[in-house]
User: Fold this.
Amino acid sequence: MKRLLLVLLLLAAPVWAVQPSEMLADPVLEARAREISEGLRCPVCQNESIDESNAPISHDLRVLLRERLVAGDTDQEVVDFLVARFGEFILLEPDTRGANLILWAAAPVLLLLALLVGWVTIRRRTPAEEPLTEAERAEVDRILRS
Assistant:
């Protein structure tokens, strides 16, 4: 029973990432803040959003995000503000245009290229079948007739 309780507490840990002191009184602004923070990467964590992270910098970013929303910024203005300071790395899903388009397309293109090179290599290593000589052809005919 204690182990089950421990597992449940550990699984619920990300829920406690946003501290009650960070939450806004206005539920609409708080919902916007949560939605934005779910799409922003913690600069020190491994692919974890600032909404889930317990890192001090994530706390600071959540507070900053909420301050910007209270000041009247739109969602896009808040995201642009953070991207200007941290770069596109802060976005969990970077844009697929410009130089990023090359990065998005590079993986599938390289995979297809590797498959093509592998296929060509295997085809070249497979020896071509030599045609049967007259003696071999006669032997096959004899075996098939018997």
Notes: Residues 44 and 66 are 20 Å apart (CA to CA). The chain has a mean pLDDT of 82. The helical segments are 2-11, 27-38, 56-70, 75-86, 99-125, 134-145. The domain at 2-90 is CATH 1.10.8.640 (Helicase, Ruva Protein; domain 3).
